[in-house]
Specification:
The structure holds two protein chains of two kinds. Chain A is built from 15 helices and four strands. In chain A, strands 1-2-3-4 form a four-stranded antiparallel β-sheet. The N terminus and C terminus of chain A are likely disordered. The longest helix of chain B has 11 residues. Classes of the chains: A alpha+beta, B mainly beta. Chains A and B meet through helix 9, helix 10, helix 14 and helix 15 of A and helix 5 of B.
Chain lengths: ~500, ~475
């Protein structure tokens, strides 16, 4: 081991520890043999899928404050169903959307079965290798020799602790995979909820624009009928109305699409789909948004991809130790021989068969294992670099989105309101006409719509940031992307030029 | 009301206007001031009583509407005046003040009254942020006293005091105003009145019992703001007499039988047909002097062109409250929008509630006309007087701008210029409603509602919305950049 050049202290420490561990086990071999039966029984008793799922359930609580219940019995399924109905009984908030996703995502349940399978594999390795019983009857003239042999694959026994470690690692890896899946599903549910609420709220502003354009067009039509305006003015106002109608169509379609994306993300079907109701608006953007300084350290400590990469390196390091240990002993078989003859006293003895390492000294396997280990060390480093960069970017984006959303909330919206108030005063004073008032109502609705877009972008960025501290973010958003917030009828106002 | 210069008040006024406070404070030292007469200040826009001459040749003083006459100092037989050009805050009407430039605390500046033959010395101190000069519009004087900066004199720089001196050679009605950056300074309200009384009886100048004077000026103050937009050339929104608008203009109160003279000078950018109700008058003088009696004819309206002076006279023999106003109807309005759609005859049924859904405080106005405006009294932008207002004994006058009332009363005492209140008409002498059962008011646009729109063969939907009576309707062209206000 000392000849290896391994960049990470932590990684170097891991294999030597497991070597010592293995030496201890080797010394205990005798006692292991003696207490074989007990171990056998004990291995059988620990087979429980719930045990394998518990760590993921704990992560779900710790990270998402949401339950991840098993749904393998009818009772469990009925309980999950009840919770779903209770959550759908009121307008769905973001946390409820996450909980619904965890309750209803079939893929997640499939993964939980997978954890049960991995657990059973692990338990398998706890069992002793079955002994081989050999019986022989040899006849030489009158001599009849009966050979009885009980043999145990010693190598299998020797490698048993390593295989137990390996299967435990497989289980852990599977748990980490499910945890990542959990994060993905929860993150997806949260983001689709944000999009769906925002799209639904956008509809309201598109409605205001449409109402205003519609009143304007109607008024212009009546003015036209009274002979007060030209066909040109009427055509312009009608064009404003038509564009507002188009914008309304788009807003409606967008709302439907985002709602369906949410429905997919939280796994609703049947009557539940109709029962889903959303709040009218997103939560307000917080007045302060300051992040911890040690975001990157937190991420490195808890991100699933980094932990998985580290575990992989550890596993390979352990495997390297195993290969060194058994590299020259491809088969080691211990047999207990009892040969009884009717003409001779019973022959007893131990029989040890050993392959002679004449051609394959195991060098290739040792080198291969070393390469695999070093490869995983490099991969771990790359994963950490990527993860830290992702977290930094997510943090910057969330900060920027917060500043933008606050500027909308603190400056642009109050200014739009003030403009509207002042505009109304000017209408009251007959300084401007009712068409100007209606055009201003449209402008203000657009300002509110833009503010809502910024609010949505902030919550999306915030969700991505908090998820990126736990694992890589895979956003499979189908439609809207941040900073392309739909502003219904943004270019539809021709009435200003109509005078 | 008229006070000696108070340096602190002056500084405060400068600070209130927000312009050139530093210039004001540093302008004139007290030592320099000692050699020249005090610059009298006035801090109210009320009409000052006539200033009877304390010394010099006697004359019948004028009353400056919402203004005052500048006291002088008689020194070695010379009448010395001191004008201070400076930023002022002028109340145009209650609820609307303007940040203007003027003289001695007000815009317009004080009226200067002298007598034919007087030697006059006028000190002019500049407390403006830029140079100025004073042109004595219409006077016979030495060329170097004409006040055209660059042409007849160097401009008066900020902080400087110049002196003008000449003999008031001919009796008449004159004005003074800057002739340096003239457009800006007049758009900011710098102007004043000048009356030279005849030294003896003049065959073309009658003796009158009441003699009023005012200047016409116009401003473009964006509703909600205070300072005129000095680049506006035609589309002004405030039409003023002595920088006041109705209902802020004082009434002209006279005794029945008085011979009344009203002198009107025009320093706006357009002409003003000044119209008097209930009496005929004659134009008895211009800034060129008295009109020979044989050349006069009776009028009820006289047009005062740009840069002109008209002096009208009549005998106020009909008691009552008689309107006196510019006959351009939008000049008797205050700030209004000139691009507001006409809604007369437009059916509003169902629409107002739809608009209210979007704009809760919206109220429908204008479908019958604009009189709603005066009735509703809704909140309007700060520092803005309603387009039309003013309450009389019978309701809203629906007026603004260049409008006032000549109040003729039998019991108005000679020399009493106070407001006698509304006229109490003798019983039976007021127009009244008569009972005519069964008659409903006709629709303002009869044809629009009586005939459905005529569909045209093969026409689009838009064409079918054509007004039924379109061919009968005549509309004036309404292009941009139109003149003639």
């Amino acid at each position: 081991m000392s000849s290896q050049t391994i960049p990470s202290t932590a990684a170097r420490a891991a294999p030597s520890t497991s070597l010592q561990h293995r030496a201890t086990k080797r010394r205990a071999l005798g006692s292991v043999l003696a207490s074989a039966a007990a171990v056998l029984l004990g291995g059988c008793a620990s087979l429980s899928p719930e045990q394998a799922i518990a760590p993921v359930q704990q992560q779900s609580q710790a990270w998402l404050s949401a339950d991840l219940p098993l749904q393998q019995t009818d009772d469990q399924r009925a309980a999950a169903r009840q919770r779903t109905e209770a959550l759908l009984a009121q307008p769905l908030d973001a946390q409820a959307a996450v909980q619904l996703a965890l309750l209803n995502h079939r893929g997640l349940q499939a993964s939980l079965y997978g954890l049960g399978m991995a657990e059973s594999e692990r338990v398998q390795t706890l069992l002793w290798p079955n002994p081989v019983l050999s019986l022989g009857r040899l006849v030489r003239g009158d001599e009849r020799e009966i050979e009885r042999g009980l043999s145990v694959n010693l190598l299998a026994l020797l490698g048993r602790p390593a295989r137990q470690d390996a299967s435990a690692r497989t289980l852990a890896r599977e748990q980490a995979r499910v945890a990542q899946q959990l994060l993905d599903i929860a993150g997806q549910a949260r983001r689709r909820w944000i999009d769906a609420v925002a799209a639904q709220a956008q509809q309201a502003h598109a409605r205001t624009v449409l109402d205003s354009a519609s009143a304007g067009a109607e008024l212009t039509l009546r003015m036209r009928q009274a002979g007060n305006v030209s066909a040109l003015r009427l055509a312009r106002e009608r064009a404003v109305l038509a564009e507002a109608q188009l914008a309304m169509e788009q807003a409606q379609l967008q709302a439907v699409r985002e709602r369906e994306a949410l429905i997919r993300a939280i796994g609703l079907w049947g009557d539940d789909v109709a029962r889903l109701s959303l709040p009218e608006r997103l939560p307000d953007v917080p007045s302060t948004f300051r992040q911890a300084d040690d975001l990157e350290r937190t991420a490195v400590a808890q991100r699933l991809d980094i932990q998985a990469a580290k575990r992989q390196s550890e596993a390979l390091a352990a495997q390297l130790g195993l290969t060194r240990q058994t590299g020259r002993l491809n088969a080691l078989e211990l047999g207990l021989q009892r040969n009884s003859s009717n003409q001779a006293p019973t022959q007893r003895g131990l029989d040890l068969s050993l392959e002679v390492p004449l051609f394959d000294w195991g060098q290739a396997r040792i080198v291969g294992a070393q390469q695999a280990y070093l490869q995983s060390v490099e991969q771990t480093a790359q994963t950490a670099i990527d993860a830290r960069s992702e977290v930094r970017e997510a943090s910057e984006r969330a900060q920027a989105a917060w500043r933008i959303a606050r500027r909308h909330h603190d400056e642009l919206l109050p200014l739009a309101r003030q403009v509207s108030d002042e505009t109304l005063l000017r209408y009251n004073g007959m300084l401007i006409g009712v068409m100007d008032l209606l055009a201003d109502a449209r402008a203000q609705a657009r300002a509110v719509s833009a503010a809502l877009g910024a609010q949505r972008d902030f919550w999306l960025a915030e969700a991505t940031l908090s998820q990126s501290l736990l694992g890589p973010v895979h956003d499979t958003a189908s439609s809207a992307s941040p900073n392309t917030s739909s502003t219904p009828g943004a270019s539809t106002d021709a009435s200003g030029a109509a005078h | 009301m008229i006070s000696r210069r108070n340096l602190f008040a002056q500084m405060a006024a400068g600070a209130a206007v927000g312009v050139a406070g530093a210039v004001n404070a540093a302008a004139v030292s007290r030592v320099a001031l000692a050699a020249i007469p005090d610059a009298m200040q006035r801090d109210t826009p009320d009409t000052a009583p006539p200033l009877s001459p304390p010394d010099g040749r006697p004359y019948q003083p004028v009353v400056t509407l919402n203004g005052w006459t500048l006291p002088w100092r008689l020194r070695d037989g010379v009448k010395e005046f001191h004008l201070v050009a400076e930023p002022v805050v002028r109340e145009l009407a209650p609820g609307c003040t303007a940040h203007l430039w003027g003289y001695n605390g007000q815009s317009p500046g004080p009226t200067i009254e002298v007598v034919e033959g007087d030697r006059v010395r006028l000190y002019v101190t500049n407390r403006l942020p830029e140079h100025t000069s004073v042109h004595w519009h219409g006077q016979r004087l030495p060329n170097g006293m004409d006040g055209v900066s660059g042409l007849t004199q160097p401009a008066i720089r900020p902080g400087e005091t110049f002196v003008y001196e000449f003999v008031a050679r001919r009796p008449g009605t004159f004005m003074y105003h800057p002739h340096a950056d003239e457009m800006t300074q007049m758009a900011m309200g710098m102007m004043g009145f000048w009356v030279t009384h005849p030294k003896a009886h003049h065959p073309a100048i009658a003796t009158v019992q009441r003699d009023f004077c005012f200047l016409l000026s116009s401003y473009d103050i964006d509703p909600g703001s205070y300072t005129p937009r000095i680049s506006t050339m035609t589309d002004f929104n405030l039409w003023t007499w002595n920088s006041r608008v109705f209902p802020g203009i004082d009434t002209l109160n006279v005794r029945q039988g008085d011979r009344v003279r009203i002198r009107v000078g025009n320093l706006t950018m357009t002409n003003h047909p000044i119209h008097l109700h209930g009496h005929e008058f004659q134009v008895t003088g211009t800034d060129g002097g008295p009109v020979p009696p044989a050349a006069r004819w009776p009028e009820v309206t006289t047009d005062v062109a740009v840069g002109q002076m008209r002096q009208i006279e009549f005998v106020a023999d009909e008691p009552g409250d008689w309107a006196l106003h510019c006959h351009k109807s939008h000049h008797t309005m205050n700030a209004m929008g000139h691009a507001v759609d006409t809604l007369i005859g437009v059916d509003h049924r169902g629409l107002a509630s739809r608009i209210n859904k979007i704009i809760p405080d919206y109220m429908a106005m204008g479908e019958r006309g604009m009189a709603d405006m005066a009735e509703m009294e809704m909140p309007i932008p700060e520092n803005t007087v309603p387009m039309m207002s003013g309450q009389g004994p019978h309701g809203s006058l629906e007026m603004g701008g260049m409008f006032s009332v000549v109040k003729v009363r039998a019991d108005q005492k000679p020399g009493d210029y106070s407001d006698p209140g509304w006229y109490r008409a003798p019983a039976g002498s007021v127009a009244r409603r008569v009972e005519t059962p069964g008659e409903a008011p006709s629709s303002p646009m009869p044809t629009a509602h009586q005939h459905p729109p005529r569909p045209t063969a093969g026409a689009s939907e838009a064409a079918s919305t054509r007004p039924a009576s379109e061919p009968l309707r005549v509309r004036k062209p309404d292009g941009h950049g139109h003149h003639g206000h």
